[in-house]
Amino acid sequence: MNDVDPEQTQLQPIRMIALSDLSVDNEQLPAGDAFNSEPHEALEHIISGRAELAENQVNPPFMILQKLDWQLEYLDQIGPEWREASRLQKFQDKAIANGARRTMVDGKQLNWIAGISRLRHVFETSFEIGETSVGAIQKQLWACWHQKVSHYNGHIASTKLSDAQMIEDGSVCLRRRQISFLSDSPKGGYECFHVGRVWAQYYVQLRKLKEKLEMALIECLQTGRILSVEEKSFGATLILPAHWVDNPLREPKDGKLAFVYSGDLPAAWVGAQKILKGQARIDAIKKATAWLEMEYARLCPLNIRMTSDEFSKRVATLFHLTGRACDEAWNNARIPDWGQKGRIPENNRIK
């Protein structure tokens, strides 16, 4: 059993599979070859699309898992909040005028997503780290888990352990699947696999990542970052974002649902930004600072930097801040190397 502390595994090599011919430690590797890589280098290989996680890992790839968790913190990748009455009315008038969904509004194409199942699939691919989507990396992380647990024999249990109990015991309890209706084996219950504490913690965090992705989707619906329309016999009608506060995310019995990201809507629809004051301004500066630190964590493995001007342009829109407030957020960020003077080489600038 592997009961190494999870923090120690952050430093352990990660097994990778080359997706294209690449050079590793001055050695030329053809596509399909396996190799070991330090965690930061492994992350760079993954987000550049040059390699993927091998299914067979000695230690859980916690660093890759943490990277995905961070990426889901910033829902502005989907679009701005779109729940103000004036914005919703504009969407109603322009995007579903006379009960018909429009594919083009004010020169901008709308990418409609049909159905909740399709929305979930598209949503997990909408968060990108470099050249690779969160959804694709999440599948690699799950493949590592399934490969690990396949080597263990489980025992039947009637009750499920809590997350804390699973980590403490080093066992993961999974709901049993009834393979055959003719089977004489007891139905229901759980099957527990003693995989060791570090892999039990990996499973718990991986499952929480899946839950966080679903909650992020629901939050996007509740805030109007994703707008929903129901197709009825008399035409399409807008579902207000507030609907998703108390209603589960499932297909209605009558009618069909279609969705569109607010980020797909014409930029001119956003209108003038409100300038925040007082505590609202302080809170927005904190969010902008956290966003910058997150961007640093995302761009650092790619050796890419953001200029203060580029940062100001982005957060002024995202967080409704003035230039002075943007400067405060930039200075508050705990990223000393971004405060260095001098021109950033073109190849190292964010596009």
Description:
The two termini are 45 Å apart. Helix content is 41%, strand content 17%. Helix 3 (62-71) runs parallel beside helix 8 and helix 10 crosses helix 11. The protein is an alpha+beta fold. The chain has helices spanning 6-9, 39-47, 62-71, 85-95, 116-126, 134-149, 163-169, 197-223, 243-246, 278-299, 308-319, 323-332, and strands at residues 14-18, 22-24, 27-29, 34-37, 51-53, 104-105, 108-109, 113-114, 128-129, 132-133, 155-157, 171-175, 190-194, 226-232, 235-239, 256-261. The protein is globular. The model has no long low-confidence stretch (mean pLDDT 83). The strands form six sheets. It has a four-stranded antiparallel sheet, with helices on one face.
Return the structural class: alpha+beta
Radius of gyration based on Cα positions? 24 Å
Kindly state the mean pLDDT as a whole number?
Answer: 83
Numbering strands along the chain, what is their spatial order in the largest sheet? 8-16-14-15
Provide the low-confidence segments as ranges: none
Number of helices: 12
Residues in helices, as a percent range: 40-55%
End-to-end distance, in Å? 45 Å
Query: What overall geometry do the principal axes of the alpha carbons give?
Result: globular
Query: Could you tell me the strand content as a percent range?
Result: 15-25%
Name the helix and strand elements from N-terminus to C-terminus, one letter apiece: HEEEEHEHHEEEHEEHEHEEHEEHEHHH
Number of strands: 16
Major beta-sheet overview: 4 strands, antiparallel
